[in-house]
Amino acid sequence: MLHTIHRRLPPIGTGLLVVVFLTGAFLAGEALSQTATMRGFIVDDAGGEALQGVNVILRSPAGEVIGTATDSEGFYIVTSIAPGTYYFQASFIGFIAETDTLLLAPGETLTRSIRLQVDRTELGELVVEAERSRQPASVTAGLQSVSPQDIELIPAPDVSADLVNYITTMPGVVATGDRGGKLFIRGGEPTQNLVQLDGMLVYQPFHIVGFYSAFPADLVRNADIYAGGFGAKFGGRLSSVVDISTRNGNKRRFNAAATLAPFVSSARIEGPLARDRVSVILSARQSVIDQGAAKLIDEPLPFRFGDQFAKIHASLSSSSQLSTTVIRTTDRGVVGLDEGTADLDSPTTDQVKWENLAFGTRFIVLPSTLPVFAEILLSASQLDQSFGPKDDPVRSSDIFMFNGSANVTYFTPSVDVHWGLFLQSSELKSNLGGQFQNVANEEEYVTEAGLYAEPEIRVTSNLIVRPGVRLHSFPSKSKTFLEPRFRIIYNRGIHQLSGAFGQYHQEVVGLNDRRDAGDIFTAWTSAPLGLVPEAIHAIAGYKLSPGSGVDLSVEGFWKKLSDLSVPEWTGFPRLTIKVQPADGTAYGADVRFGIDRNWFFGFVSYGYSFVEYEARGDVVPQWFGLVSKYSPPHDRRHQVSAVASVEYQGFELSLRWQYGSGLPFSQSIGFDRFILINGQNNVREDPGSARVLYGPPYDGRLPDYHRFDVSLERAFDFRNASLTLQAALINAYDRSNLFYMDLFTLDRVDQLPLIPSVGIKVEVN
Amino acid sequence: MGGLDYSRNRFGHPVTALMIAIGAMMWSGCDESVNPFIESDRYFSLYGTLDMNADTQWVRVDPIDTTIFSTGMESIDAAVSSTDLNTGDMTVWRDSLFEFNDGSFGHVFYAPLRIQPNHVYRMEVERSDGAQSIAETQVPELPIASVGSVSRVVFSNGAIELTVPVSWSGIESAPAQVETWYRFGTTPRSNFQDLRFAYPTADGSTDPGWQIVARLSSDRDDILEQIIPDNFYFLGMGMRIVVFDNKFSPPGGVFDPDILSQPGSFSNVDNGFGFVGSIGRFDAQWVLDDQTALDLGYRLPKR
User: Fold this and answer.
1) Number of domains in chain A
2) 8 Å CB contact of A642 and B18
3) Which of A125, A146, A175 is the last residue of a domain?
4) Looking at the partner chain, which of B64, B101, B257 has a beta carbon nearest the beta carbon of A676?
5) From the list A624, A677, A694, which residue is nearest B275 (CB)?
6) How many CB pairs under 8 A join A and B?
7) Chain B: closest CA distance from residue A566 (Å)
8) Chain A: closest CA distance from residue B52 (Å)
9) What is the pLDDT of residues B110-163, one digit of tens each?
10) Are A308 and A288 in contact (CB under 8 A)?
11) Domain containing residue B173
12) A440 pLDDT band (50/70/90 cuts)?
């Protein structure tokens, strides 16, 4: 349940509200200049959804043309326009172009928000969708933008596609199995990923079954996935950013959809609360896997999860918008050796359980006289997590965070100045049941505050540099960091070179007992051991876009990690562990090649990565001499993904094949009894303790992972409704991919076997 | 722009290539099995301390197993012997199955054997197939103790602190344990009782040996908490030290089970794990001069 905002939180509302004022004061001189500015939002007239990539041009009577394109918010801005008369055009393929003749006065800031109508005389809606940019192999300095159309192409055991299935096809993204909801991105750990939905943090959004997250494709407008090297706007995490924007509900008419499949069933409804001004969208999904898919394969699948989403969006005026988003997710299940006999409803069954609740409000405003885009975000995020019997857990970890932030962009012809400030306050409560011997159960309050500035400078028409700095303060650790960030993009014809660099810190961290892949409980705590973990990223990439829907990207990355908190291994088969400090290095490279044709879409990627930790605890150096470096269990060296989607006679066939080389695990020599010989004990009386004779840490490799998924989909359109049928085979050649092996019992748990699946989706307009 | 052109009839090429690649990967990654064990030439774990003061020695022998669920009751395929490398004398050890108070069982081998100072003993544990685990230990040298004269410090408040240094020659490192003992009896010829006080072991090395200062006054304060000296005669005192062999030194100098349980972190067993050490317990005893005993408040027997 969402807390009310804690009283210890300092007031910040006033501070946030002055942001726009500050921008105005700072840049007042520009406003008085003698040029004009034009800006606004462009949306689809049919439902009010923002249109990205709309070309906006202004043509002077002399034939001079200036222009821009809309971003993912549908926002455009053209600055430094010489006063005069212009022919204006906003055009997007498949839509009727909006044209006008404008007279722009000196110093004028004209706000023109536009609704584009679909051009049904030339192109149908389906064609419009297909023509939108799909660049699966396109990555720029660690950033890959994902559209709902991209997500829909990945086979899934459900007629409703999900963002996580796309993310797991990206090179450098490692999932340790098809359950657990953990993603490791380019060497980072799951709790080092910053996942934001409409600007609000969602702590653990990936569901317990790996095909699902809290982000179904039909809610996503756009997802920017930074595998590293992210800019100054983001901070507080070491590894990556998944920044998701959700779409708005239809502002013109109500429509609804429902799906039924063996894994998940869902329902969605959306429509106008005030025609063309205010919309609402509601969505709910609930797993049926333990009744549906489990019966298909005649094996227990003790997992339950669900999510609910609601968003209200209001276009307050042509220059301001307000949206409120709420998301709740629930997950519980038994992961590991007991899956086969677990009864989730039994009061004695040990199960992991987590629940996210996030609430956020976002206000976008275009100040009347300034070439500025400003947003103010207020959000609260909560994660409750536990392990043990459902009514009497033995471990729990709860975190509640309030976030207030403001992001401002000031536009000039050659520089867009991005800057902002933020304040976050978190309350962390944990009852760890002694799992971590040197991390106490406690209630903590952690505050993070700071500001950033990041001008995007168009040095030439080909070269963009984005130097930035983020001042990030952790008062509870009495530490403040000035984190440099830098991005550079150089375009020359069909070639693009890009690079990124950044330094990052994270105070609120997640601790896992990584000895046991089945133990997915994460303890959120302020960084133990008195150290604030740090990461430094460097990325360099090359992209070739020769046209004809073909892309090739090559990118290398390097990450240096310091002051991590990792579990310390012990030969005793204990349920408890110590936390020890460690440093790490991750580096690698990936290659992506994609083809996008009208009726075919596909990409192949290969990723190589190397991850190494160096533990600084007392114990690890004692293992077989001075071995203190090891490969953590997510160090997957080689990955291949191949995705193809073919449309034929109204059918859409999607194929995905994934390969990952084996993950590290600690082999053992065997078992014995350990007796501490200290000169005082008597071996006739001391029974000793059972011991696992581990070899060098994580020196073994599990078998390679690979899986082939296929789905076939056909949509039938009726007058005011559509019906989509889908059939899928997950793990089509029934590969026994190992999920987990218990080194004590030598029992193994495999990932999901071959699962046939059928799904149906009904949409009513 | 020289873009690539994939016309429909050429489109089969990338798909074909993709399928070939997938097939190749599938073929190469067919092995689904996992071997949780490292091939190793380690066969037994040995634990024990050969004691110079004992006439029977005991060593626990555990076979390195591939299951954690062994009860310990299973018969053990092991022949255990020891050899005094100084004399060549070999002793065959016998097996005994112990049940411990936690309900577990273990094989503890024993042999009637008095170990000699400074001798090297080699323990061999051999499986029927010839696989051997071996440990060697050199018994500590016999030290010689010499007791110094009593030091008397008088403080401004009249309090007196009495100490006496005891030097142990022939010890290379700090003793593992040190204690002083004081002997009291109710009559000069009655049964006596010893009061013992553990000392920290890090007083100081001398050349050659180790010096430990007996703190007569502070020990006396502890004695007063246990007996009433007027009711007892003071009969004498002494110091006992326990000395380990020179390999009996854990990493960091601390017997921390969390660290020492790491395989190989503290072991002198070849082709195995565990530790077989040797220790000597050495005593020095002396009689305090009468004045010192009286200053300490002790009652002396009439002579």
Assistant:
1) 2
2) yes
3) A125
4) B257
5) A677
6) 206
7) 16
8) 12
9) 999 999 999 999 999 999 999 999 999 999 988 889 999 999 888 888 888 999
10) no
11) 144-246+282-295
12) low
Report d(CA A516, CA A514) in Å as an integer.
5
CA distances from A184 to A141, A174, A376, A502, A523 (A): 18, 5, 30, 19, 17
Question: What is the average pLDDT value for chain B, to the nearest integer?
Answer: 84
Mutation target to probe the B interface, by most B beta carbons within 10 A, among A622, A692, A704, A739 is A622
Q: Residue A633: which domain range?
A: 133-764
Burial class (CB in 10 A: 0-12, 13-18, 19+), B95: middle
**B158 in the same domain as B136:** no
- Beta carbons of B42 and A693 less than 8 Å apart: yes
Which pLDDT band, with edges at 50, 70 and 90, does A627 fall under? low
Mean pLDDT of chain A: 86
> For residue B14, which residues of chain A lie inside 8 Å, CB to CB?
595, 602
Same domain, yes or no, for A278 and A346? yes
The answer, for A657 touching chain B at a CB cutoff of 8 Å, is yes
CB contact under 8 A, B62 and A706: no
pLDDT, average across residues A645-652:
90
- Residue A595 is nearest to which of B6, B42, B98, comparing CB atoms? B6
Whole-number Å distance between alpha carbons of A629 and A615: 6
Residues of chain A contacting B29 with CB distance shorter than 8 Å: 659, 703-706
| Binary contact (A683, B47; C-beta < 8 A) | yes
* CATH at residue B152: 2.60.40
**Least-confidence region, from A274-288, A391-405, B179-193:** B179-193
Do the Cβ atoms of A386 and A379 come closer than 8 Å? no
Per-residue pLDDT reduced to its tens digit, B21-55: 556 555 555 677 788 888 888 999 999 999 998 99
Chain A residues 548-567 with a CB less than 8 Å from chain B: 548-550
Q: Is residue B214 part of a domain?
A: yes
Give the model confidence (pLDDT) of A447-477 as tens digits: 999 999 999 999 998 999 999 999 999 887 7
pLDDT digits (tens, 9 = 90+) for A111-158: 999 999 988 765 444 333 334 455 666 788 899 999 888 888 888 878
Q: Tell me the residues of chain A between 23 and 82 that have a Cβ less than 8 Å away from chain B.
A: none
Q: Using the 3D structure, point to which of A58, A92, A125 is the last residue of a domain.
A: A125
Residues in chain A: 765
Beta-bridge partners for A503: A536
State the pLDDT at residue B25.
Answer: 56
* Helix or strand (DSSP H, E) at A245: strand A240-246
For residue A287, count other CB atoms closer than 10 A to its CB.
27
CB B19 within 8 A of CB B248: no
